[in-house]
Amino acid sequence: MATPERFDELSRGLVDGVARHPDLVGLALLGSASDQARDRRDEWSDHDFLAIVAPGRGQALRPDLGWLPDPDSLALTAREGEIGFVAVYDDGHVMEFAVAEASELSGAVAGDATVALDDESDTVTDLIDDARERAALADRFDPAQDARLVLVKILIGVGCARRGEVLVAGQFVRTWAVQLLVRTIRGRFPDRCGPTRDRIDPLRRFEADFPELAEQIARAVAQEVEPAARALFDILCGLERGWVDFPRRAADAVAARLGWTGD
User: What sign results for the dihedral spanned by CA atoms 11, 14, 18, 20?
Assistant: First the structure.
């Protein structure tokens, strides 16, 4: 657990480490690590950031993470894909970050972000501005489309479960159907989405905006796959009242295929 003092110490260490490295040109602190999100930090907040590499130096630099702060306290570092990394300290504090050239982050999205270091060309500032625009575009929902996809994931997931493929069935129901159901709810009731919502991940802080529905979803997915799927189906159908675009024909087809019509 990082105390507020430890959190700030690590942030300063990141700035110092990036500033000293000849091949790193900038640093953006994201999410809980940003200045905007300081008041939301708690004992589970981690450091998300982008370390921006000089053009043409990304591949050579990425194997060396010696610029991270307090290296003697690192319990592990690991790569996640080509440009993504994670680090865990002895006290359990987590850093998740990308080490990339600006061109490698052309599709990045960002919400809360602080540009802690930049070069003379404002490379990081421009990158974050573009990432925020993409996040704003992503923070739009088509609830009818998402509802249809919930039904698809439920149908496939239950089919997998009945076939005996329980692990992948759980992924369809507990992960993909839930993600799409949350998107459906946010799109169905946009006025209830608070200003502190995460514009990148609709599941983040969902409990703050929709506490009752969040509790229902949590109870649903705590069950075996098929009862979980049926409970999510019922939650989805509970959104139909007053919604002319609800995919009723598709919901009836899924219920009939799964034998849920007589329950």
Answer: positive
Q: What are 20-40's pLDDT values in tens digits?
A: 999 999 999 998 888 887 888
Write the CA distances from 74 to 3, 50, 84, integer angstroms.
17, 19, 17
The CATH H-level superfamily of 4-138 is: Beta Polymerase, domain 2 (3.30.460.10)
pLDDT for residue 262:
63
118-156: b (≥16 Cβ within 10 Å) or e: beeeebbeebbebbbebbeeebebebeebbbbbbebbbb
- Contact between residue 116 and residue 29 where contact means Cβ atoms under 8 Å apart: yes
Residue-wise pLDDT for 111-166, tens only, equals 888 898 898 888 889 888 888 888 777 667 899 999 999 999 999 999 999 999 99
Q: How far apart are CA 48 and CA 32, in angstroms?
A: 7
Give the model confidence (pLDDT) of 93-109 as tens digits.
Answer: 999 999 998 888 888 87
**Nearest of 92, 61, 50, 62 to residue 75 by alpha carbon:** 92
Q: Which of 228, 133, 214 is nearest to 177 (CA)?
A: 228
The DSSP-derived string for 87-138 is EEETT--EEEEEEEEGGGGTT---SSEEEEE--TT-HHHHHHHHHHHHHHHH
For residues 203-213, average pLDDT: 88
Q: Evaluate whether 206 touches 184 at the Cβ level (below 8 Å).
A: no
pTM here is 0.76
Show me where the domains of the chain are located: 4-138, 143-258
